[in-house]
Amino acid sequence: MINEFVINVQxxxxxxxxxxxxxxEDCFQSRSQVQNLIKKKQIFINxxxxxxxxxxxxxxxxxxxxxxxxxxxxxAQNIPLNIIYEDNDIVVVxxxxxxxxxPTTKExxxxxxxxxxYKYGYEGLSDxxxxxxxxxxxxxxxxxxxxxxxxxxxxxxxxxxxxxxxxTAQRQYLAVVTGNFDNxxxxxxxxxxxxxxNPEKMAVIPDGKPSVTIxxxxxxxxxxxxxxxxxxxGRTHQIRxxxxxxxxxxxxxxLYNKKQFKVxxxxxxxxxxxxxxxxxxxxxxxELKIDMDEDLIKVLKFLRSIKNG
Length: 309
What we know:
By secondary structure, the protein is of the alpha+beta class. 19% of the residues lie in helices and 30% in strands. It contains 6 helices and 17 strands.
């Protein structure tokens, strides 16, 4: 049995080799796995048989054929969804910590997509990003909680993706970081790409993708600060990488901050708490805000008790 999924390329800054581009996609385990599929003539770009050296650009359609022994079956699972907003075209959910946004070849259950498939099915979600990511327009790290926009159809998917690209959609985050700040606000404008030292990490590198994070200091403590972030771009681990780069890694981020905080949390103390976008239904501006998650509340309570003690 052959299964097929499609990737519509939308976010490359410049042309990239196909094997390099696909190896960065979460649905593949390695570059060698991609190259093996290319050798078996199971990957096509815009309908033409692909080569490892084929160049990928925005607007390209990549079609991947997977044999039954290598395909990924995504089961629908009855996992509760915390729906914050919904209309005929768009759903906004509050994703909890310790949940992947979408499946990978290594993990096919327990993700937000599994829950979405149970409630809406493939027919009720956009398919622009293929079978592994139905409805997914943007994503959050496993241990970052908060607001995520989901597209119910391809028209709404493209509508939301364009808002993210043009920066008319606004995504804001809260986090507790190490260290103190002299200025109340600032901008981190540094390119981000895959770390050459540790492939699990992203890093600020000269040839990385342009990445801009705006921060505002909300409250300071002894050796720590409570910040609000506004994303102007949406790179993998962007806030975590940028804060680490300027010497203020997020509290309890085991990947980018080796210093363990006195209060135990699920992982990094980071939440996507505010979202603004335009509705496809009536073109009204939708603004959503959620309460702080348990980790943020717990850490801030501890820091304020010391500050005021």
